Structure formats: structure tokens, C-alpha cells
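Bit of a strange request maybe. I'm writing a small parser for C-alpha cell strings and I need a real example to test against, not something I typed by hand. Could someone generate the C-alpha cells for this chain?
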Amino acid sequence: SPPLGYWQKQWYQRRVRVVTDGVSTVTSDEQLCVEESVEKIFAACLGRTRLKDTFPLHRARHINYLRKGLSRLSENFECLDASRPWLCYWIVHSLNLLGDKLSRDQEIKISEFITSVQADTGGFTGNVGHLPHLATTYAAVCTVASLESEECWEVIDRKKLKDFISQMHNEDGSFVMHKDGELDVRGAYCAAVVATLCGLGMDELFPNTGEWIAKCQTYEGGFGSRPGTEAHGGYTFCSLAALILLNKTHLIDKKLLLDWAVHRQMRFEGGFQGRTNKLVDGCYSFWQGGMFPLLHHVISPGNPDCLNKDGWLFSQVALQDYILFCCQYPSGGLVDKPGKSRDYYHSCYCLSGLSVAQHSFDSTLIRGDQNNLVEPTHPVYNIVLSKATQFYEYFNKNRITEVKAKG
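Reply from user aminoacidic:
Good idea to test on real output. This should exercise your parser:
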């Protein structure tokens, strides 16, 4: 097969700028501005170096940035005071992807914090004294699953956790995120991931949920937050992943979904947008890119000859180039797009997208040399694959079957 440099050159030469038809709008002007900033970076880097040697993953800088976040955050993060388990997850998962190993003391401290936000009624809160919330419950469980010690795993009160998930379920199959809270497909995804990983049993927790999620598919093919809303990358990933866990993918139009997904990769930048006519954003490297292993999983059984067996149905090289060239902050951490500030959210999902773009089936496709390789992530849970497998097997040996009746 041709070398990686050949495919990189092919996508670079075939990039297509946005077509404005001579009409200037806020949307088109912003898109042109992004394209100009990306073009300057690509031209500077590809013009002065050989294709195979360009832009390494700045692993040590990213690890240093992430490790600092485990112990101390600036006042700029005050707005995330109710999302502390998310900060733990973004940082710990990113470190795992980069192959950095936490000490036992660090893991114990993290699990102790997670314990401190475990609600008496089950589930996990965003901070001490807050209401339990399905999103922070997902983040807390994924953080614990990303640690190595069984002692850390055992901080989860699975019986109360199952009761909490049951309380968030509505008769139509949907889930609220917290008591009297908002309702969207994130709730179904977070609940399904937590229930699967922790061996809580699925049948009694998710009546009608697959059917409700299917109603969220739009005329475009993607999924909105709830029935009747616009298709969005994050909600679409959550919908598809939840349907896979519930074994309900037969309820949706998979080919229409595939058509929507393949058109979200930007033809000039190489990264993904979250919605039609929106700008590229590094976080969608996972939310959109991560859908393709899932799509392959649900489409290929009935159509074994229609899918590429050598990789995913997007340009894995183009996505790696966007992440490595345009999303790495000089002093560590990753960003949405050139000119934006670094943060732990985008660091996590850019690295997760890089993992998806590098690993397909039993092969790897690496932009640059072997030093750019990150660990494979589980395409449904977004936890490093080996850790997700160990955690799942540990808890699913002894599943929780009983569930407390709603009061």
C-alpha cells in the first residue's frame, strides 16, 4: 500500500474551501477566517519539513499541563466548581491516553474525592452537597474505571447507584439528568454506560428507552437532544452508543446516519464540525470521529462488503493532521481551534479523537513517527480499552439485580 505521506499529500491537495456564492454572512465570514488561520499553519509546517517528519505530539508538555490540574487549578476554573468529577475524568483519561501512570497515592486521593461526592441516595454529584446528576455520575464512574486499583473501584455503592438511575427514568423511556432536571439523550447514554460498566443489569432499568432515543433521529440523519431538535454531534454519539448498549440499533435509519456523519468532516481543515454549517472544533474529533467505529459495528453485519475493512469511513490522516498541527497549545494542552485557549475538556476529546484516528481493527495508522501513538480508547465508553475491559469484567461477575421501587 502507498506510504502514509502519499495519503497525507492526497488529502492536503484536495482540500476544498467553503463556497460563499459571493454572499457575505456572519457564518461564512467566520468560516473563511478559520480556513485562513489553518492554512497559515499548514503552509508553514508542510512547506519547511518532510511530510513524514512533521509536527510531533508534544507528549511531555501535555502531561505536565494535565498533572498540574490534578493538584491545583486557577480561579479561571471557578465556573466548573459544580463539575469537579468531569475535571477528574478529563485529566485522568487524557493521562491514560498518553501512557502516563499515576502513583498509588494519587489514585487513592482521586478515589477519596470521588467518594466525597457520592450522594447518600446514590449517584454522584458535581461537588460536595450538590444534587446527584447523571452526567457527573458518568464522569465519576469513568474516572474510577480509569484507575488501576480494585480498592478504588470498590468506592462505588452499586445498589444505591442502581436506585438512582431508576429514579431518573421516565415512563416514555427518557431520562432526566437530575431530580426535576432537564431531559435529553445524554441522560440515556450516561445511565446506559454506568449500568453496563458496573454490572447493574439492563432489562429493568431501560424500558422504552431505545424507542425514545430513536424518535430523536432527525431528517438529516443525526440525532437531536430530544425529539424535534437539531442534529448535533454530541447528542448523536450519545444516541448511537446508548442504542448499541441497549441492543436497539434496528430502530434507526443507519444509512441516513452514516450519510450525515461523513459530511461533518471539514473538507479544508480536516477536523469535524458539530452541526451543519458550523465551524470545526477539536472536541468533535471524538464526538463525531468516535461514531465511525460504532457505525462500522452496526452496519457491517448486514452489509459485509459495503464497508472499508482497512479503516474507518473518514480521513484518519486529515483528522490527525488537524489535531497535531492546529490543536496543540505550545506549552501543553489542546484547543478547539487555532487562536483558542487550552482547557482540559478539549485536551481530553482531542486526544480521544486522535486515538480513534490512529487505531482501527487490529492495525494502526500513525501521522508522524511511533512517538505520536496514543493508547486505544473504548469507542462506547471513551475509557482506555484495557482499563474499560478490566473494570467491566470485575463488576459483571457479580451483577446487581434488585432495584428499589420509585417513591
